[in-house]
Amino acid sequence: MSGNRSRPLGVATIGYAFMGKAHSQAWRNVASYFDVPAFERTVLVGRDADAVAEAAARYGWAESATDWRSLLSRDDIDIVDICTPGWLHAEMAIAFLEAGKHVLVEKPLANSMTESAAMVAAAEAAAARGVRSMVGFNYRRVPALALARDLIGQGRVGTVRQVRVSYLQDWLADETAPMTWRLRKETAGSGALGDIASHAIDQVQFLLGDTVTDVSGRLHTFVPTRNGPDGPEPVTVDDAAWATLSLAGGAVASVEVSRVALGRKNALTIEVYGSEGSLAFDLERLNELMVLDGTVPVERQGLSRVLVTEPGHPYLDAWWPQGHTIGWEHTFTHQIRDFLTAIDTGVAPSPSFAEGLAVQRVLAAIQESAAAKSSIVTVGSI
Ligand code: SOE
Fold first, then answer.
1. Which of 266, 270, 359, 363 is the pocket-test mutation for ligand 1 (most atoms within 8 Å of CB)?
2. Cβ atoms within 10 Å of 351's Cβ, excluding its own
């Protein structure tokens, strides 16, 4: 793919911590493995001049900058990849879309429904001018989960009845772990809910190609105070969240997420139970999908391990011969590949900001239900 451009697309990434680093490796690698339009890694942006300069040199960006607004008027920047905390997403994404830049923004879309709705409006106005936008729900780009969606779409598990998603981490299990922006409502929006239940909810809607219609939720903060720079500070977000979700097509899903599940580091598991088959996925074994065909005689039924490393599996023709596994970082490379392809072909990328808003609606309904102590809340009523 080359498009008709007179020069390579210019890319800027904002943020160089965990997500900025993950996205940087994807920008560095994608063109070596996938057929994508020509682009240049033009600038990496961060607040600390020395640290961002060091990160830019390390990750292979041509230059660094400290003022994200300086990108708005630059003709050599076509794509902006926003890897900042959620409280900055709306202001940045809207400004860049209005300036005609294609925007990829890390999940969750934003910290509030108001911000999310404004981002969708800006994305739709920009799309009319050929400007693309996408949210970074990278687990959609795990080959085994893309395969699971294909199998469900082909009816291989029959009618989906039940989905179970669990996403457990333990980096807040230690009561002495310090305060961070992720533990303040004004900067993070919510806790485990927005950070990791957003992935779980996106997966439920992605895998089933369906929409959550109502929820019942519960949130809990196990460690209510943590030490900040000026002493003890209240934690204003949840450490863990639980929800049951009804889907329009009749399925029911359960979601359980935690950042205090001692021993679980980044444990995402997904199970899908249909009328004719079942699927199971475990991120710690991300090259595998467990599949049960319920249409064969029961004596021969069993969850079988499909090794998802064949060239015919999603994304894998670009990588190694069959049986040679890939890792978590590849999901970001696939994500950049899909975004560049969408820009090049003019096909709207997915997940769109509207799909990001669909997740935010579910998050808001869970918060509402939790505040009301377990009443069922209709999605979209907030
Ligand atoms: C932190 O909890 C985090 O990095 C999330 O923000 C990511 O989206 C998830 O992939 C891993 O955990």
1. 266
2. 22
Q: Ligand 1: residues whose CB is within 6 Å?
A: 18, 169, 195-196, 266
Q: Can you tell me which atom of ligand 1 is nearest the CA of 192?
A: 2
pLDDT tens-digit map of 270-312: 999 999 999 999 999 999 999 999 999 999 999 999 999 999 9
Summarised one tens digit per residue, pLDDT across range 309-328 is 999 999 999 999 999 999 99
Smallest CA-to-CA distance from 80 within 132, 34, 12 is with: 12
pLDDT in tens, 340-349: 999 999 999 9
Residues 64, 45 contacting (CB under 8 angstroms) = yes
Structural domains of the chain, ranges and CATH numbers in brackets: 9-139 (3.40.50.720), 143-285+287-326+358-371 (3.30.360.10)
Is residue 2 predicted with pLDDT exceeding 50? no
| ipTM surpassing 0.85 | yes
Residue 169 CA: nearest ligand 1 atom is 2
